[in-house]
Write a structure and sequence with these properties.
Low-confidence stretches: none
CATH class of one domain: Alpha Beta
Oligomer: single chain
Order of helices and strands: HHEHHEHE
Structural class: alpha+beta
Helix content: 40-55%
CATH topology of one domain: Ribosomal Protein L30, Chain: A
Radius of gyration: 23 Å
CATH superfamily of one domain: Ribosomal protein L7/L12, C-terminal domain/Adaptor protein ClpS
Strand content: 15-25%
Largest sheet: 3 strands, antiparallel
Distance between the termini: 54 Å
Length: about 110
């Protein structure tokens, strides 16, 4: 009985040996302090966009206020871009000049 030609084509290839997987790159999202955005707004943004607890959001907001900038999370590229866009849109619609940046994390 003849063998299936499709099966035979894969018998002699070592796909697992030729395939290399790389770890995905991660990106940190930082919020920068300014003199115009209310602290309550920053806390609300951290809770809604970044899913922080009220306690964590307040701690992060105070760090941003005293240090000038603070990383609020580390995410894969697509999630980081989405969260930044959501946060920036929220700030823009409320009329606040909040600055949110993304930076690649060194591995």
């Amino acid at each position: 009985m003849p063998q299936n030609p499709t099966t035979r084509a894969y018998e002699h290839t070592d796909i697992a040996d030729k395939t290399r997987f790389e770890m995905p790159k991660f990106y940190s999202i930082s919020i920068h302090n300014d003199d115009y955005t209310p602290m309550d707004f920053v806390v609300m943004l951290l809770m809604k966009v970044f899913r922080k607890s009220p306690e964590d959001a307040e701690e992060i907001m105070l760090d941003v206020h005293t240090r000038g900038v603070r990383v609020v999370g580390v995410y894969s590229y697509d999630i980081a871009i989405t969260k930044r866009a959501q946060g920036q849109q929220m700030a823009n619609l409320a009329g606040h000049p909040l600055k949110i940046t993304i930076e690649e994390v060194a591995q």
